[in-house]
Amino acid sequence: MKKEMIKTDRGEFEVFIGGKGKEPICISHLYQEFLSGDEPYSRVIGEHYKVILINLKNAGSTSKARSKNELTMEEAVKDLESIREKLGYSSWAFAGHSTGGFLGLTYLYMYPTKLSEIILCGTAASNEINHSKNNLFNVEDRKYRKDAIKVFFKMAFPLFSKKSKEEANKKFFQLCLYSKDKIDEYYKGLENVGISKSRMKAYTSELRHYDVREKITNKSVPALILCGKYDVQCPIEFSEEIHNLLQNSTLVIFENSNHFPFIEEKDKFIGALKSFKHN
């Protein structure tokens, strides 16, 4: 992946461009920052697309936000649109995983004519995920309470050492795997992905009001919805809901995956992308 700095009237953005395909596809995330273009989601998408992986404001080397409002989902989509225009694409595809899918759904209702297609993996159209008994973050439910509280406390509390926080991050990732015994093999792939604390804070605040279900209903942009059967961050019922709301979508369930089917069932994931492009 080649790094470029793209300057628009909304700021200067760090972008990684690569992939084996010709069709441009934008990939971004609400609070992750990409330390290089070598991260697992973009890697598999790049098997069939030309990837434009974008660090949003306050992530990587991209411009800093001048106000909290610039960190909202809608403002982020406007930033992505400014990059699309600067690159000269009349439209492009978008791929989002987890909260990157929240961003994609926001893009879908704001600028549907600018999206050639959309790929959403392990995501949701509302904050109802917070109340799901199958959601790792729902600590009111006893299913994940013991492990989740211990991990979140270490990740958030400033007095814990860097090593303790890294161990907590790894444990959190393991909780989001179907094949938990493969943690060491799979965790290596995330070494080039970090977290923007300011963007995470903005996302947490906006999540309280997040609900785009009415806004995306019957949108006709071709959509591929992908989800691990045992997803504990965005449980499968929320991908099924998105599939039912959209007019032109394909739903693929990964029987041996949790939140990261593009890692746990990589070949099947790439096959789903190929089938989608050929339909």
Q: Number of DSSP strands?
A: 10
- Report strand order across the widest sheet: 1-2-5-3-6-7-9-10
* Structural class designation: alpha/beta
For the largest beta-sheet, the strand count, sense and barrel status come to: 8 strands, mixed
Q: Determine the number of helices (DSSP H or I, runs of at least 4 residues).
A: 11
Order of helices and strands: EEEEHEHEHEHHHEHHEHEHH
Tertiary shape: globular
Radius of gyration: 18 Å
Tell me what portion of residues adopts beta-strand conformation: 15-25%
What do the pLDDT scores average to?
90
Helical content class: 25-40%
What distance separates the N and C termini?
Answer: 28 Å
Report low-confidence residues grouped into runs of 5 or more: none
Briefly, what is this?
The protein has eleven helices and ten strands.
If you had to describe this structure to a student in words, what would you say it looks like?
The protein is 38% helix and 20% strand. The chain has 279 residues and is α/β, with parallel strands linked by helices. Strand 9 (223-228), helix 9 (236-245) and strand 10 (249-254) form a beta-alpha-beta unit. Helix 2 (73-87) packs across helix 3 and helix 4 (145-156) packs antiparallel against helix 5.
